[in-house]
Every structure is written in structure tokens, then in C-alpha cells.
């Protein structure tokens, strides 16, 4: 009985997701961790330490990409640009702390989007982004010029933080459509404040944004996790059924021998 239980546990362990690809994914996970550590340093105003971590990231990134090539061309371009922005944020003393934090956060979200297969971190920005966009709409409909410009600028800053990581996870055509609406609202601010037809772009943009966030977070569990639950559950049920059947046969045999 003990040997059978051990065999079942070993078999379940072998079925756990990611085991067969541990060597391949561990390098990307390490890069992801480095981006997080750099962000933590910036939060603490330790810009020099963040710079060193980002430089070390660059060395490791070149080594990983040269050996395994785990990145697509689009990913390479996005990582390179966001990494450069993050490095500049750690050395540019003229930037405010919030600007530095936004640039390094942007890089952090990019690496998470690449390493995550389920609900990337950038989707956690849904509440602040949708909240400030609601303020943009309210200011536009009430004709409050000052609040409209202020809230729209805040929205654009937040959107810029998630934009690179969104490009990794969302279809390019949908992102382009989103950008077209945002550019229209930004470029034609006076019309959006005064014309009902232009204000319809606000409703359309809000709907597009909400749809993207909903689609990225609609599943409550990783599909691979459900596969493991179903697979291991079936194995356990079959094993217990077999053990129960063997026990039943053994009991019947003992009763027969006593008779």
C-alpha cells in the first residue's frame, strides 16, 4: 500500500505544469525578478542601486537571448526601449521621483507580461485608469476646462505606463484602434469639451478599455491549473478505486478461507 501511494505521488509531481520546461523558463523568471528588484530600489530612492541592477539585467538579457532566443522581435524591441527608459530614469536627476517611478514601473510591467501566462500585472492598473477616465468624462460633460485637461493628462500618464506591456498581450489591431481614439481626444481637446459628437469618442474609448481589461481578467483560474486538477483528481480516484477493489477482493478471499 505504501509503495503504491508513493508511486501515485511521484506520478502527480511529474504532471505538474512547467516541470518539463523549468530550465527554459527559469532564465526569464530571473530577468523578471531583476526588473522587480530595480523597481523596489527606485521606490526607496536608491537610484544608483537600481541602475546597477538594470545594468546586470542587460548582461543577463544578452546571454539568455543569445542562447535560447525566447523573445519575439516585437518583444525584443519593447524590452529594449522600456529598459533604456528605465536606465535613464535612474541617472536623470532632473526627473521627478514620480517620473522615475513611472518609467521603471513601465519596464517592470513589460517583463511581467513576457513571463506571465495569466493575468499580467498591468491589468492591476484597471481601477486607477478607469477611475481617472471617469473623471475625464465628468469634466468634459460639465464643461469644466481645468479639470478636463488635468484629468486627461493624468490618464495619459497612466496609459503610457501600461502601453508597452499591453502591446505584448493584446492584438496589435485593437491597440492601434485604442491609440487612434486616445490621439483624437488628446489632439481635439476643445471639441471634446464642447461638441457632443466628439464626446462620443469618450464613451467608445471607455468601452474599448473596459473590454480589454475584462477579457484579460475574465478567467478565475489558469487553464493549465484546471488541467492539473482534473488530471490528478482522475488519477487519485482511479487509484483509490483500485486499492478499494483489491481490499474488497482480499476480504472476500479471507472470508472464504475461514468458511
From TrEMBL:
<protein>
    <submittedName>
        <fullName>Sporulation protein YpjB</fullName>
    </submittedName>
</protein>
<feature type="transmembrane region" description="Helical">
    <location>
        <begin position="225"/>
        <end position="245"/>
    </location>
</feature>
<dbReference type="InterPro" id="IPR014231">
    <property type="entry name" value="Spore_YpjB"/>
</dbReference>
<keyword id="KW-0472">Membrane</keyword>
<keyword id="KW-0732">Signal</keyword>
<keyword id="KW-1133">Transmembrane helix</keyword>
<feature type="coiled-coil region">
    <location>
        <begin position="195"/>
        <end position="222"/>
    </location>
</feature>
<keyword id="KW-0812">Transmembrane</keyword>
<feature type="signal peptide">
    <location>
        <begin position="1"/>
        <end position="22"/>
    </location>
</feature>
<keyword id="KW-0175">Coiled coil</keyword>
<dbReference type="Pfam" id="PF09577">
    <property type="entry name" value="Spore_YpjB"/>
</dbReference>
